[in-house]
Amino acid sequence: MRSALPALALLAMAAPVVAQVHPTCDDGVCRVQLSPQQLLAAAEKLVAEKRFAEAEPLVRALARAPGFALQTRFLSGYIASNQSRWGDAIGQYKAILSDDPGQTRVRIELARALMASGQYGAADKQFQVIERTRDLSPEFARTIRTVRNTIRANRPWQFDVAVGIAPDTNINNATAADTVTVMLGDTPIPLELDRQARARSGLGVTARASGSVRLPVAARVAAIVDLDLGGTEYDGGEYDSYVGQLAAGAEYRLSAATRISLQGVGAQRWFGGEAVSRQLGVRAGGQTVLDPRRRLGLQLDVRHTDALFNDAYAGWQYAAYGSFEQAVTPTQVVSFGPYVRRDALRSDALSSVELGTTLGVGGELKWGVNFGASIGGARTIFDAPVRFFSPDPRRDWQVFTRATLGNRKLRLLGLSPQLNWSVARVSSNYRFYSTTRSRGELTLARYF
Predict the structure, then answer these.
(1) Is the full-model pTM beyond 0.85?
(2) Is residue 212 classed as helix, strand or coil in its secondary structure?
């Protein structure tokens, strides 16, 4: 495990180092000049002896020496922790990790300070990163697992929020085609599309909020509630889009590594100021930690859709989502997510089977930078043709990609900036359904 402060190993040598410094006296006043290395050794010795008030002036003096930022921040954070000044300690430790996420010792101290200040969710995230470190001793790894289980068992809620602006090249999700071919009997006829039917760009105001509540009700059982809200508003309101989803149920812990859950789900979507669909259903999920660096999950989702704008879109939706996560470093994770979905709607021409997958990578870099990138694709096959367009059933290929860049080190009213950009392309044998959409989001996010 990498040490946050290698010089701490030299604490026992600090006294001889300082003792070799000879004071200079003038008119009964003696002065001692210390090099930064000697100052560091003296400060470390005082900290080791828990003489924090005496060590603080030395640490402040050391902060003026170039090249000692890491040592100064660590000692300042350690002193603050021992004086129960958790906010100061957390700030110092985060500053170190923003510049070098690989400092495991610092991350341990940060997790401890977060727990002491009641920020259990944030502490759990830090312990998760620590758990992925390859050279942890078995005893320390078991201790971390125990601490994480305790956090999850006793943390009742979490809440995240983001607000920002969203430039979009296709706010009405319209076709990319200028002309389409329709069938008049057996005769194909090309038609030019009206401008209102083509893609329109726009700049929206977007907001998202998600929260969860987890309350233990028995030794292995917890009640869980998840709420997700999101939406984007455009000028004029014609293409405003909002969605809300609530899920409630229970989670059962099969073992320290494996959990399963069952929830009832309700969702509603609004478009252009009108409710367009409602869903009720159930979802079941499970996840298991294969080892600290690998996680496997599966979710099954069944729900019924009431299409308020067109009854042909009403029916049942069945889906299965898999996930596999592999940590390539303690702070960076690669993920793989295959899925299959069946839409059994009242109209056979709108019913379909979709098979797809995503591949992503994300994590934490130096200087507080967080990143994510993913790419995916899907194949959708519909049950029956739309005779107006073709005698053959519709077949679609989808390709989509997404990139995210943020910086937790920057703060504005407690919010951190984040930039998202996604591109989606649908290629269909029905030209009318071929679309291209690029969407950006510049948001300020807060994670509680």
Answers:
(1) no
(2) strand
